[in-house]
Amino acid sequence: MRMRVNLKHALVALVAGGMLATAAQAQAPDLRLLGYNATLTASCNVGCTQLTLGLVLTGLQASDNIGQPVPAPISAMGRFIRNTTIQIFGTNPTITGFSGVPGTYTATIDNGPTSFAALVLTNQTLPLTGNSFGAIVNLAPGNGMAAVSVSGLAYLDANLSYLGPTGAVQPVPPALPPPPGGPFYQTGDFNVFISPVPIITNSVPEPSSYALLAIGLAGLGAVAARRRRA
User: Would you call the peptide bond into 207 cis, given omega within 30 degrees of 0 as the criterion?
Assistant: First the structure.
């Protein structure tokens, strides 16, 4: 008898828990996640001890995280980078420093894994500014650079506000309303990858190139002299 009573209580608890979970899910706000298209440029010097990067967010992808079309007013909103993670893949790559990053960003260097190193940057200042990002990353020699990826999070609104489907700011006191309110939008992620990274060489002109340049300058000088005599 006691076992039956305990089993009955357990079943009641399971049913009640399931009902509570279902109710909680039903009350969750309709918050959509977005994806950004991005263009990444990257180049290394000889030996890849200096990696130069440039990132530009070019617009939102056409659908959200559940495959629904993104409303036109949301697609027309701004693009403000908040977090960026630069990952450098190679043979035990080690980041020794960086430059070109705005002072509003905080930085963390992670040289722990043997297959890649990471530079994590976060813009701590509001309102956010800019949909582009640039940096120069310094690396220890012998890093065997194979590829680089840049990923992160961007916001539609410079002050991190939630937006309704018309693009209007949705106040949050104390939380977003549940359906049928929404959908609501706030952030989008981006992820771009380059392999192999182009190597930029600073070539020294051949002596023959200097000779041709001298001949060309001499010819220009002769033409100018004839014009003056004429």
Answer: no
Within 10 angstroms of residue 217's Cβ, the number of other Cβ atoms is 10
What CA–CA distance (Å, rounded) separates 92 from 143? 6
pLDDT in tens, the chain (230 residues): 444 445 445 444 544 454 444 444 557 999 999 999 999 999 999 999 999 999 999 999 999 999 999 999 999 999 999 999 999 999 999 999 999 998 899 999 999 888 999 999 999 999 999 999 899 999 999 998 899 999 999 999 999 999 999 999 998 878 899 999 999 999 999 999 999 999 987 644 555 544 545 555 555 455 455 555 55
Q: How far is CA 61 from the centre of its chain?
A: 14
pTM given for the model:
0.76
